[in-house]
Amino acid sequence: EAGVVQSPRYKIIEKKQPVAFWCNPISGHNTLYWYRQNLGQGPELLIRYENEEAVDDSQLPKDRFSAERLKGVDSTLKIQPAELGDSAVYLCASSLAVSGTDTQYFGPGTRLTVL
Amino acid sequence: GIQVEQSPPDLILQEGANSTLRCNFSDSVNNLQWFHQNPWGQLINLFYIPSGTKQNGRLSATTVATERYSLLYISSSQTTDSGVYFCAGGSQGNLIFGKGTKLSVKP
Asked: How many of the other CB atoms lie within 10 Å of CB of A109?
């Protein structure tokens, strides 16, 4: 069974440019998460989806970040415009249960560098 | 919000040694997980363990929910165990991660 798929794996952009990340969760998983991991830190949750619904986006910087999960399957996270401080690894994870209280499986991440 | 404290921050072991990693929570959690981040950055889930004890090969974990802490035991460590170990806890799916324990196993 395929794991969580993310693309691209690496992205280098100039500040003020837009960027988008794509995630395809494990087949059948109802809950999808986007995390951001800064160097030397643990991941921080940006947004959690239960099926198509964003149930927790309190940590998402809504002035420049947006996300969508159409049809309750794959998801896209967008940053527009990017700032220097957005350089980080963006991780997608999924879990089977709608409540989210079960094992989370992570994708390989997208390493974003903003110059 | 919940605070997650992991100790020790760094650990160097000789291959074959045993170790215990600890995770303390500032409040009760109903979702607690341990992860290993390998040197290539991939996060692997080790245990989903809101309470009780689980074992998987050379790894085991114990969570004492009433005292808000969890322990991860690594026995007979191998060089492939190197990396960063994170614990994460919270309610529902909203996990708060600790800063991790960086483990280096020397041959």
From this structure: 27
